[in-house]
Amino acid sequence: MENTITGAENPQSTGRxxxxxxxxxxxxxxxxxxxxxxEVAPGTWLVAAGGRQxxxxxxxxxxxxxxxxxxxxxxxxxxxxxxxxxxxWQEQPAAxxxxxxxxxxxxxxVPESAGFLAxxxxxxxxxxxxxxxxxxxxxxxxxxxxxxxxxxxxxVRKLGWALSSLDLAVLGEGAYVAAPPTRLGSRGAVQWASxxxxxxxxxxxxEELIPSLAYACGRDR
Length: 221
Fold this sequence. Notes:
By secondary structure, the chain is an alpha+beta fold. 29% of the residues lie in helices and 18% in strands. The chain has helices at residues 25-35, 74-77, 82-91, 112-125, 148-158, 206-219, and strands at residues 41-42, 46-49, 52-55, 97-100, 106-111, 132-135, 139-144, 169-171, 176-178, 191-194. The strands form three sheets. The chain has a five-stranded antiparallel beta sheet with strand order 8-5-7-6-10.
């Protein structure tokens, strides 16, 4: 798909989906719905104002310009229909791509530095890895099977950590991940640190990734 970090690819990604440089938001959104069966929702977008790019929400101090829900019922508008996706992005081609979590996947969110440390550790141990995004706010999101939010505190506690002591969050029901090639203001675009491929269609359970992520977050404190 779009924008993968060199050197951070999934080592198990045989039969990879060809990288599509320059892919439009519409094309990417359709591919997520068709190839991954992910529900997608259009978010805010960037508008030019006074020589700067501002969020379509109108908030001059928006913390996530062009990369957050555009309306309160955004989750209800999320769809896995490629035809509906095409219609939504034809109406607003610049809309960001939001993937609701808690449906086909949850996401484990960690700081970028901890995320790359965990990726290196997972490569050494041969851990199963799903798609991973890297956002311009310097956080990485590891896609896992749904249901991680309820189990996370217990999984971390078994490893001897308190979840409150780690910069490790779970995005579950009601949350979302901004997907490539969504742009976050002037900070750049969301990228894939481990892109979706046929080999990682089946997502790992959170329990498989938590040891490496908790260790990395502990080292990163």
